[in-house]
Amino acid sequence: MNVDSRKVAAVVVAVGAVGLLGTACSSDDDSASNTSAAMSSPMSNASGAATSSDATEPNGMDSGASTPTTITTDTELTTVGGQQITIGDEAIAKSYGERGGPDGYLGKPLGPVVKLKSGGSFITFEHGSLYQNPATGAVYAVHGEIGDEWGRLNHENGRLGYPTSDETKIEGGLEQTYDNGTIKFVGGKVTVTPAG
C-alpha cells in the first residue's frame, strides 16, 4: 500500500524503538536487520488488490481467510518484525478480529495504533490498514488498488477525507466511499469521484 511518509515514519519509529529495546535484551545480533527487512517487504506487496475477477466477498476479502476471531485491547499480537504489541483502541481491535486478525486478509500488524491530529486513528498491516473515522467512530479497511489511490491523494488529509465504508462489490469491480467522494476500481482502472 502506498503509505504517507509521515505515517510510515511513525510506524517505523514505533516498531524500531520496540525492536531496539528487544535487541538490547537479546543475544541475537541479527534482530535489528530482521526488523528492517520485515518493515520493507510488506509495504512492497501490500497492493494485493482484489479485482472483479477474483473470487472475493464484497469488501475484497478472500472468504476462506477471514474467519472472525476475538481480538481485545489486551490481546498480545506479534508484528511482522517479531515484536509484541496490543491494539489499545477497542473499536480497531474488534474490527481487526472480525476480519480474521493475523490470519485474516490484512495479515499481521506492522506496528501499534497511531492517533492522528485530526482525531482519527489507524494501524497498518501487511496487506492494508484500518482507519477509524473520527466523525462516526466506525473503523474501515483500506487496501489494494483503492487504498493505493487514497494514499496517493494524501490519505485522510487529502480531498476525500476519511473512509465511510469498506470496499463493496459493484458491477465489474469494487468501490469505497469517503467523507468527500468515492474511489472505484473497475476493469483494472481506478477512478476518483468527488462528492457533490
Secondary structure elements and pairings:
Blueprint: H1 5-24, H2 31-45, E1 77-78, E2 84-85, H3 90-98, E3 114-115, E4 121-125, E5 128-132, E6 139-142, H4 144-152, E7 168-170, E8 173-178, E9 181-186, E10 189-194
Antiparallel strand pairs: 1-2, 3-4, 4-5, 5-6, 7-8, 8-9, 9-10
Helix pairs in contact: 1-2
Characterize the structure shown.
The protein has helices at 5-24, 31-45, 90-98, 144-152; strands at 77-78, 84-85, 114-115, 121-125, 128-132, 139-142, 168-170, 173-178, 181-186, 189-194. It is α+β, with helices and mostly antiparallel strands. The strands form 3 sheets. Strands 3-4-5-6 form a 4-stranded antiparallel β-sheet, with helices on both faces. Strands 7-8-9-10 form a 4-stranded antiparallel β-sheet, covered by helices on one side. Strands 1-2 form a two-stranded antiparallel sheet. β1 and β2 (84-85) form a beta hairpin. The protein is globular. Mean pLDDT is 76; it is low at 5-64.
